[in-house]
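Q: What would this complex look like in 3D?
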Amino acid sequence: MSQPSRHLRDTLETWCAMGVTGAIRVLAPPGGTLYVADGWITYAECPSACGVDRLLTASGRLPVASWREAVAAGRASHRVGERLVQGGLLTPVELEATVLSALHGAALFLLCLDSAIRLDMGETPAIGPVVRVDLRDACAEVDRRRRALDDAWPDSRMDTHAVVPVRSLSGHHVGLNALQWEIVAHADRRRTPIDLARSLGRDTFATLLEVRRMARAGLVGPGRPGGRGAAGRWIGAGDHSSADATAPDDGIGTGEDADEQALEPPAHPAPAGAEPAPLAVVAGVDAGPVPLSADDRPLARRTASPVRWSDGAGPSPDVCPVSVLLRIRDGLAAL
Amino acid sequence: MADMDTALKEAMQIDGAVGAAVVDYTSGMALGTLGSSKSLDLTVAAAGNTEVVRAKMRTLEMLKLNDTIEDILITLHKQYHLIRPLSGRNSQGLFLYLALDKGRANLAMARHQLRRIEEDLHV
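A: Here is my prediction, written as structure tokens for the whole assembly.
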């Protein structure tokens, strides 16, 4: 079942009222998936927001190996969350809080889009049935968050541009909370708040909010725009000119990109996951979410390898590494 | 789901309780609420009280007392509002919020019970 492009919330309202169960793929950039069960939202993911995998592994809460183990054990039965709790790695409340954080983090980007969507009936998220959120509550939370961001500091460039701490202070001292400190300590003049949230494994909205608060206090300013569409598009929220930017995924990452060190280049907002990865590369080629300007290239060169290739294809589309072609072939074969 | 719900239900069993919530103060979002009504919108209360917690934590840091908040009591003319940050190693960033009817509540008892609920919340 698919729907033509229109405001996502209206379509969702109808489907939730019908009590559908399945995965709703959002096709406009930044792309993402909302999982519903009997009309309740059970999970949401979006490349711009931290998923459960990054919230748990990149933050250092769980070792990547433990996460992968739980995913390997629970993915097929859609019980990854349950495995984490049974294995004594997380308390039920922590799991619930983390899933809610990921769900609302993705909803912030997805529920303001005008987008074509596709419903894959019957699909459930691999994390399992952890929470149930009413669509109206999710929308109310999105609206609250957007208001909170605007109240903190109305310049929305702070969300999509690199975070640049000021070089000198006008006063003698400054007080930062823990998240603000992490942001400043990891701001490398290239990463946007979305990149920083992913590499720190922190809640994306909380990071956006702290960046705007620091902007209000005159501690950080906007640098160059982020190089990826996922970071750059959500405020516009009306653009659906690109093709399918969603990646086939089952709502869970393997935590592979969690290996990234804190001081490594920013993670591109691509789905993790061993099987879906080749397909994600294909999607990147077809969709090419945002044409890169010359300004973006220095950042693009620093991103992770699949993206480096698709970005690199911008200036010279003829060049295509053999390894990537092989991965595409494998991906297509897997279909 | 069960555990947060259980904690909220237990909080609502406290004498005089009119509303309870588990709130993430990094985002201001209520992760769970019970007893929300027209006269007490717990989602709004969650977001607003996040500012209270942040302000007090900042103040403590500025004072360099090297201590943390056990709970915060706000006394209204008709209600008590109790805020209790979760102190577990892994529950950084959450607090319990309890609104009590002043006429029916026993404040000392309520604080004691809320502490117990908080301890159970992340065993």
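A: To summarize the key features: The longest helix of chain B spans residues 42-63. The domain at 2-121 of chain B is CATH 3.30.450.30 (Beta-Lactamase).
Q: Very helpful, thank you.
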